[in-house]
Amino acid sequence: MWLERALQCGEEIRDIIIGNSFIYLWHLLFWSFERQAGESQYWEAERGEMASASLVSSSPVLGKSEWVKGGQSIRLSSTAAIRCLPATITIRASYADELVKTAKTIASPGRGILAMDESNATCGKRLASIGLENTEANRQAYRTLLVSAPSLGQYISGAILFEETLYQSTVDGKKIVDILVEQGIVPGIKVDKGLVPLAGSNNESWCQGLDGLASRSAAYYQQGARFAKWRTVVSIPNGPSALAVKEAAWGLARYAAISQDNGLVPIVEPEILLDGEHGIDRTFEVAQKVWAEVFFYLAENNVLFEGILLKPSMVTPGAECSDRATPEQVASYTLKLLKTRIPPAVPGIMFLSGGQSEVEATLNLNAMNQAPNPWHVSFSYARALQNTCLKTWGGRPENVKAAQDALLLRAKANSLAQLGKYTGEGESEEAKKGMFVKGYVY
Ligand code: 13P
């Protein structure tokens, strides 16, 4: 009896072993078939579309297939995973070369971005500060002054516009986009729809604008825009909560993928607000978390890293912290952050000024360019390029030339800082005034 039972058990065990081996063999065959199919697709892709192949190899999500295949612990080759994504790659590939070229042009030596994309509401605040009404004519006069500053393109490679400006002409009837192109400046467009409260968070916000983004982006491309900007924010005093960071990162990644599908280089901007009494170490810690999450989701959304630009905040102490940091400290913390979080495939890091004074923003940028970096490290300032210019203009036609000179002075100073050659000599008192506004809304 016991012998019979033992034999039966042995048979069962043998069946299990054979069965499992069969399943194992079948899996091996299946994987090797997938791998070959994937590889031949890869080589076809490489032959036909160099850029799409670079997308494939630069996209860490493909290597993550071990996590998504039903808990299998055997790692699929990254090329096999291509089979899951043909549609994405085909669409993206149509713009891949152009995206890479646009990003490289914007990230060219000695140049940076002029952010002049204030929403009508924010532009109204700027105009009010010099006693002007917030009318379309006044906004047009101010933006005409900015884009027609002689030889601006020597220092400025891209200009971010608000939608109104993208479709606007100058006071003399020339399209603003055409003037930029004549100056050698790439026109860009702010595509987000602003911040709203994030339900379920600690009084934090999220950025809207994904609905209809694909068709809007296609229309902006038709109108001459070649890059886009989406600014979301993270607040340190309010947490930041894991929910707010995840939402910010996911929104940026979806926006980036949609922009690339429509030929626009996305500027990825999770602004870590200056608000708060925290020290520089806390900013560093939050920034590390935020950028880790941003790159995780950019990869998950198959974003082509070679065709994006970043717009980070510099790592500084909170605006209300009594311990201030020198440009060298800011540079050291910020570069440490970038080196541990940003792949070298990304062509350009274009910092925002975030309420720093014009001179402070330039000094900090200069300190970051004292040694070669893997990416172009430059500026995408609004307040730190425009403040003195706006005040000098004061809404008076006779001051246009002086205001343009003030803009060119700042643009040149930041161009030198991009090259690591700014000395900070001869700056005006106005340029040294901080512009931090608590709870600032762009
Ligand atoms: P600031 O340089 O004034 O912070 O502006 C940043 C910005 O996002 C504008 O596009």
Describe this protein's structure.
The longest helix is centred in the N-terminal third of the chain and has 47 residues, at 2-48. The protein is built from 16 helices and ten strands. Helix 2 packs across helix 5, helix 13 (327-341) crosses helix 14 (358-368) and helix 15 packs antiparallel against helix 16. The chain has helices at 2-48, 50-57, 65-68, 78-81, 86-106, 120-129, 136-147, 163-166, 176-182, 213-222, 242-261, 280-300, 327-341, 358-368, 383-393, 400-418; strands at residues 112-116, 156-161, 186-190, 195-197, 205-207, 227-234, 265-272, 309-310, 348-351, 376-381. Strands 1-2-3-6-7-8-9-10 form an eight-stranded parallel barrel, surrounded by seven helices. It is globular, with a radius of gyration of 26 Å. Helix content is 51%, strand content 11%. 45% of the residues are buried. By secondary structure, it is α/β, with parallel strands linked by helices. The structure holds 1,3-dihydroxyacetonephosphate. The site of 1,3-dihydroxyacetonephosphate (13P) has 14 residues, from strand 6 and helix 15. It catalyses: beta-D-fructose 1,6-bisphosphate = D-glyceraldehyde 3-phosphate + dihydroxyacetone phosphate. This is Fructose-bisphosphate aldolase. It is found in: Plastid, Chloroplast, Plastoglobule. Its EC number is 4.1.2.13. InterPro entries: Aldolase_I_AS (IPR029768), Aldolase_TIM (IPR013785), FBA_I (IPR000741).
